[in-house]
Amino acid sequence: MPRFLLTRAGSGLVVLLLVCLFTFVVFFALSPDPAVQICGKNCTPAVIDQIRGNLGLDQPFWTQFAQFVAGIFVGRTYGDGAGAVHCAAPCLGYSFQSSQAVWDMIVQRLPVSATIAVGAAVLWLLAGLLGGLLSAVKEGTFLDRFTTGLTLTSMSIPNYVLALVLQYVLVVQLRWLPFPQAVRFADDPGQWFASFVMPWIVLAVGYAAAYTRLTRANVLDVLRENYVRTAHAKGLPPSLVWRRHALRPALTPVVTIFGMDFAGLLGGALITETVFGINGVGKMAADSIARNDQPVIMGVTLLAGFLVVVGNVVVDVVYTAIDPRVRVNA
Amino acid sequence: MTLLEVRDLTVTFPTPRGPLDAVRSLDLDLEPGGALGIVGESGSGKSMTSLAIMGLLPRAARRTGSVRLTGQDLATLSEAELRRVRGDRVAMVFQDPLSSLNPYYTVGLQIEEAYRAHRPGTTRRVARRVAVEALERVHIRDAARRVHHYPHQFSGGMRQRVMIAMALCTEPELLIADEPTTALDVTVQAQILDLLQEIRRETGTGLVLITHDLAVVSEVTEHLVVMKDGRCVERGTVEQVFTDPRHPYTRALLAAVPRIDDEIGELRAVRATDPTTDPTTDGARA
C-alpha cells in the first residue's frame, strides 16, 4: 500500500511537471512580450530591457523554466542589487496587473471557491443518489419517467443560462435572495447561505442529473446480477439484500466519477463565479485571461492540474479500500 | 412423506405475441434423501422449474400448480414465510459460481450471512465457525484462512465448492443444483459431482440436479426427468431411460452423447421431432 501510494504520487508529480511545461510554453513563450505589457504607456526601450532583466526574460527558455519551477519549491529572487525582490516559496510570480503575489491571490480566494464546490458537491450527491435510487426502485413508473425527463432537461440547460434565470427570478423579481456576496459563515450564517445557495444550485444541477442517470443504471444492472439472486436464494431479508448486495456494488463506480468531477470543479466555478460576480479563484481565472495576466493564468492552471492529479490519487486510494479485487491484486 | 411433490406446475410469461409457457403442467416427486435429475436443452424450462420451486421467478412470470415441501404447499406461503424456507430448508447452487458470489465480500461473510439469516441471535464467532466447518466439509484446505478470502481468489472449482458449502451450512432438506458443473472444466466437473454424491451420502439431503448433460445425471441420480419445451417428455429411473428410451427426443439425446469408441470427428446432433405432431410424444412412464 505505501509503495503503491509512492508510485502514484511520483507519476502525479511527473504529470504536474508536464502541465507546468505546457502552460509555460503557451503563456510565456508564445504570448506577446510581457515586459511591454508591464511597461504600459510612456515606455522606453531602456525600461523594457530593465523589466526583461528583472523577470529573467532575457534568459534562454530552459533557464526561465527552471527558474519558474525552482520558484515553486524554494522561492526565487527577481532582479539584483538594491531593486531585488525576493519571492518566497511557493512562488508563482507576481500579477502583471496588481503586482500581488499570485500565490497570495489564490490563497485569498480559495475558501470562497471551496465553499461553492463543497456545497454544490453535497447537493448533487444527495440529489443524484436519491433520485437515481428512487428511479431504479420505481423503474417504469410515472415517477421514473418524470425523473428521467427532469434529468434530461436539466442536463441540456447551460449553467450560465440557469444562473442568469435564477438570478433574475429570485433576486430581481421575487427579491427572495440578495445578490450573492462572498460572506463568511462566521460573520453571518443567514447571509452566507443566501449568498451561496444559487451558485450551489447552478453548479450542482448538471452533475445531479448525470449522477441520477448513473445511479439508476448501476442499481438496475446490479439488481440483475447473479449474486443478488443468490442473496435472495439464501433467504436474506430484502433490506439486507439491498444494503449489502445491491447498493455497495452499485455505488462504487460513483466514487470514481465523483473524485474526478470534484477535482475538475474549477472549470465550473469559472462560469458560476463570473456570472454571480463572486470573487473566487474561478472569477480570478476569467479576469486574468481577459487581461492576459500570464502569471495568474499559469497559477490557476497549475492549481487546476494539481487538484485533478490529487483527486485521481485520492480516488485510487479510496478504490483500493472499497473494492477488494483492486486491493488484493495490487 | 414425500420431500418434494410438484403437481401441474405451469410457468407463463407474457410476451408481445401472447403468453408463453416456460413450464407446462410438470409433475415431480422426490423422496427424502433421494436424487432427481432434470435433463433438457437450453430453453426447455428446467431452470425456470428450479426458480419456481424456490419462489424466485422473475416478477413478470405467472405460476400455477402446487409445490409441496414435506406436504406444505409453498404457493400458499407469504413472502416472509417463503424466505424462511429459502436457504434454510431448500438451498440452491447456481451455474456460474463467479458471478453468483458477490465480489465485494469475503466468502466467509457470505456463508455467515446465509447461516445467520435463519439462525437469529447467532454471534459472529459462532457463524464464523460454521463457515469454516462448511468449507472444510467441501474439502477446501486451510479453511480457517480461506474464509477471509474473496471470490476472485478462488479457482472455478473452488468457487463452486464455496457455493455448495454456503448452500449446505443450514443443513437443508433439499438442495437444488442448477447446472453446477457447466462452467467448469471436465476434471473439476468430476470432482464436484463426487462431492455432491458424498454430501448426499453423509447428510441425507435430497438433491434435484438440473443439467443438459446426460452423463452428469447418470453419475449422480437414480431418477430422471427429460424436459423439452417446458414439458416432461420422459421419466423413469436412470437405468430405464438409458436402456429403453420411449420418446424419440430422449433417444436423440442419448445418441448424441459422445462415446469413447466413436469414430474420431463424429458427433451427432439432436434433431428433435415436434412433440405436438409426433404420435410417440407421450413417453412418460407414470
Describe the secondary structure blueprint for this structure.
The complex is a heterodimer of chains A (330) and B (286).
Chain A: H1 2-29, H2 34-39, H3 45-55, H4 61-74, E1 76-78, E2 85-87, H5 102-137, H6 142-156, H7 159-173, H8 189-223, H9 226-233, H10 238-263, H11 265-276, H12 281-290, H13 294-322, H14 324-329
Antiparallel strand pairs in A: 1-2
Helix pairs in contact in A: 1-13, 5-6, 5-8, 5-13, 6-8, 7-8, 7-11, 8-10, 9-10, 10-13, 11-12, 12-13
Chain B: E1 4-13, E2 20-30, E3 35-39, H1 46-54, E4 62-69, E5 72-73, H2 79-85, E6 90-93, H3 97-100, H4 107-118, H5 124-137, H6 143-146, H7 156-168, E7 174-178, H8 186-203, E8 206-211, H9 214-220, E9 223-228, E10 231-237, H10 238-243, H11 248-256
Parallel strand pairs in B: 3-8, 3-9, 6-7, 7-8
Antiparallel strand pairs in B: 1-2, 1-4, 4-5, 9-10
Transmembrane segments (chain A): 12-30, 112-137, 149-170, 190-210, 250-276, 296-322
Subcellular location (chain A): Cell membrane
Protein name (chain A): Peptide/nickel transport system permease protein
The gist of it:
By secondary structure, chain A is mainly α.
Q: What distance separates the N and C termini of chain B?
A: 19 Å
Q: Helix content range of the residues of chain A, please?
A: over 70%
Provide mean pLDDT of chain B, rounded: 86
Given the helix and strand composition of chain B, which structural class is it? alpha/beta
Order the strands across the largest sheet of chain A as they lie in space: 1-2
Q: Structural class of chain A, please?
A: mainly alpha
Residue windows where pLDDT falls under 50 for at least 5 positions of chain A = none
Number of domains of chain A: 2
Strand content of chain B: 15-25%
Which descriptor suits the 3D outline of chain A?
globular
